[in-house]
Amino acid sequence: MKLAIASLLVGSAAAFAPAQEAFRAPTSLQATATDAKAFAKLPATVKPGVVTGSALVDLLDAAKEQGYAIPGVNVVGTNSINACMEAAMKYGGPIMVTFSKGGGQFIAGKALDNTDDRASIAGTIAAAKHVHEVAALYGVPVVLHTDHCQKAWLPWIDGLLAASEERYKATGEPLFSSHMLDLSEEPLEENIAICKEYLEKFAKVGILLEFELGVTGGEEDGVDNTDVDSSRLYTQPEEVWYSYQELSKVKGGAFTCAASFGNVHGVYAPGNVDLQPKILKNSQAYIKEKLSTDEDKPMKFVFHGGSGSSVNEIKEAIGYGVIKMNIDTDTQWAYWDGIREYEAKYHDYLQGQIGNPEADDKPNKKYYDPRMSLRSGEEAMAARLIKAADDLNCVNVLN
Fold first, then answer.
1. Which of 16, 13, 9, 6 is closest to 256 using CA atoms?
2. Exposed site from 104, 183, 251, 337, fewest CB < 10 Å?
């Protein structure tokens, strides 16, 4: 699983009050506390379909309080998007559909010129619109998120933000639920200054910011940290506190912090990664003291780069306030494995358009129809996500 960097979202009522006020702008499309509840175990603001603004904050609050983490899954097309929502429908919980810059480009079409990130922007927007059209039909809350965005890639986020601003003017809701800015390669002060600038824009349309401190090791989708100094894999509580203080100055801002604690992207056997969830525990204690709050877990964490992490380590991290875990490596394999199994099962029917073990003149169209092998990939990916949801305590958390 691709757990990753600890993402911290302010959890105390006092800390969240400004963010919730900003996210509760009057609109006929936004639920209120008096609305009928769609899910017995979630606040009334959370409805089937794409979740944004105050409803997203409420959903993450519920995850922390009830002790589960939401799978955050990287996708590269409607097949993987639909597999995510199918899985959520089956395990009875929320799902976070996550786009990378490279994934957006692939969705638009690899043949396109990506100058100024125009293909990445167009593909990500197109996929987000697909989710908005069909998500409610699956009957689960869906969070639309974007993954690691380095400093050089900020024009990609600018294009997505423009689309959210346009949608917000028309509907009172943004196109995307949240964006991650990964400026961990920059000095801490510059990292947070840029994040603060973007959070001011996000807060106006109800988008949550996820930012990164430290570095997630390994390599994923154009982000290569395989040779990074190991000391950068472990974030210090003081860094988290500094970031929290600065970002809290943004009126109405809601943010999560991806704090590294030994996480790595890629494929690793359990036991081969020096994961230290205690960093999350120590950060919680540090922030609790600074805030003078009675809450033991004032922050909500997000886990990136969980490759090589055991289920016990995952559950330990959830105990320290992890409310989302990123998954990519394992679902990529599951999708391919589903296609591979389909080919192996029908191999003799996939060697030509006509002729198979039943007869030399029998057509094979129903076997090589792309929908058949792609559906097998979807089913395998959904099955892997159901297993992931179980590991994350995210099964039957709606009703």
1. 9
2. 251
Amino acid at 7: S
Query: pLDDT (tens digit, 9 = 90+) per residue, 256-309?
Result: 888 887 766 555 455 555 778 888 889 889 999 999 999 998 888 889 877 667
Radius of gyration of the chain (CA): 21
Q: By the 8 A CB rule, do 151 and 183 touch?
A: yes
pLDDT digit string, tens, across residues 154-195: 999 999 999 999 999 999 999 999 999 999 989 999 999 999
The tokens 């297993």 sit on which residue?
A: 387
Q: What is the pTM of this model?
A: 0.87
The active-site residue out of 58, 61, 147, 182 is 147
pLDDT per position as a tens digit, 1-18: 444 444 444 443 333 333
**Amino acid, single-letter form, for residue 298:** P
